Recover the amino acids of this structure.
């Protein structure tokens, strides 16, 4: 089977679905190819987001937190936020975006994994051929679109592992643990869903399984029947996230917070920019590398480039601080208010709104 469209999007996660909605709203035929048989699976990330995520149906907000506790060994400090952070149903959020995309006219084709590419003509695992006037890679940190179009992603790669465990938790407190036993190059987390259930996970440069076993033992929680979900996260600043007739968005473009390593807020912001760039290219029938570099790369860098650089500096700072547990106590004693406010609002954005 062969299908032609205006915009062909690889990846049915938040960035692909949002970008698809923005393009389809302008009247262009848009197809999203999702490799899994169901949108939202496997469920990924801790689902902790700031208010900048935009409007979310109330039933998808599982909990709200205002406090983050940063732990290293026996030392810790706490940060409080005036605005609550939302703990959301990630699978439900993806399905919500998919329903909205379909309402906007997007065609979502499930179980279609991209296996080949030639001149914007995509071959899928089902043997189908798709052609888009513009191709959008929203296919994650190990993007096939990036690899096949020569867009080099940063080498910074971390492996994630998460489960939902039972225990006794402070419902208003997110706990971040920086002990080397639990993570190499990042941190572990406890994100409460209620007083009795929490998402427990970690990011690390190496095999996450031995570290997860140590973490669960340290926390003394019940993960006996828990389902573990693995993932990877790539971070940094790409030199280019576009080529002739192609753009990358979301995790594929490393539009991820370098410190907290969350991607939903940045993806939402950059999906709007990607949608505008694609719409402009389709209206003008202009898909050159130079045009997309100006319409897309320049625009998203202007919006979140500074935030990415601040996040990278924060990451370096914490990697230095974690070498000595006393430094965590020092932060609490000195009361670094400006630093503290950034720790619980790690978007590092001043005025950018998701739907501007």
């Amino acid at each position: 089977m062969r299908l032609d469209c205006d915009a062909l999007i690889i990846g049915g996660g938040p960035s692909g679905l949002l970008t698809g909605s923005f393009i389809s709203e302008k009247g262009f035929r848009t197809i999203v190819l999702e490799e899994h048989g169901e949108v939202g699976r496997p469920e990924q990330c801790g689902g902790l987001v700031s208010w900048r995520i935009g409007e979310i149906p109330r039933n998808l907000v599982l909990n709200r937190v205002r406090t983050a506790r940063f732990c290293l060994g026996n030392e810790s400090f706490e940060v409080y936020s005036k605005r609550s952070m939302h703990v959301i149903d990630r699978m439900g959020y993806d399905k919500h975006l998919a329903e909205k995309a379909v309402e906007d006219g997007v065609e979502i084709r499930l179980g279609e994994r991209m296996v080949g590419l030639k001149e914007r003509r995509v071959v899928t695992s089902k043997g189908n051929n798709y052609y888009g006037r513009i191709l959008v890679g929203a296919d994650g940190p190990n993007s096939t679109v990036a690899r096949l179009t020569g867009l080099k992603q940063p080498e910074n790669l971390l492996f994630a592992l998460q489960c939902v465990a039972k225990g006794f938790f402070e419902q208003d407190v997110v706990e971040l643990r920086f002990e080397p036993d639990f993570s190499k190059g990042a941190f572990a987390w406890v994100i409460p869903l209620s007083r009795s259930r929490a998402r427990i996970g970690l990011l690390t440069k190496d095999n996450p399984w031995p570290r997860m076993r140590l973490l669960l033992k340290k926390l003394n929680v019940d993960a006996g029947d828990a389902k573990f979900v693995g993932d990877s996260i790539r971070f940094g600043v790409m030199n280019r996230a576009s080529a002739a007739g192609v753009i990358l968005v979301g995790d594929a473009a490393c539009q991820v917070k370098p410190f907290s390593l969350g991607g939903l807020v940045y993806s939402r912001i950059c999906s709007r920019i990607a949608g505008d760039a694609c719409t402009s290219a389709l209206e003008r029938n202009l898909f050159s590398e130079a045009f997309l570099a100006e319409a897309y790369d320049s625009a998203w860098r202007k919006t979140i480039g500074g935030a990415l650089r601040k996040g990278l500096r924060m990451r370096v700072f914490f990697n230095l601080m974690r070498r000595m547990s006393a430094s965590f106590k020092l932060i609490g004693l000195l009361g670094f208010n400006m630093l503290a406010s950034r720790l619980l609002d790690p978007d590092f954005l001043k005025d950018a709104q998701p739907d501007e």
About this structure: The first strand starts at residue 2 and ends at 10. Helices lie at 14-24, 90-103, 144-149, 208-219, 264-284, 289-321, 326-334, 337-344.
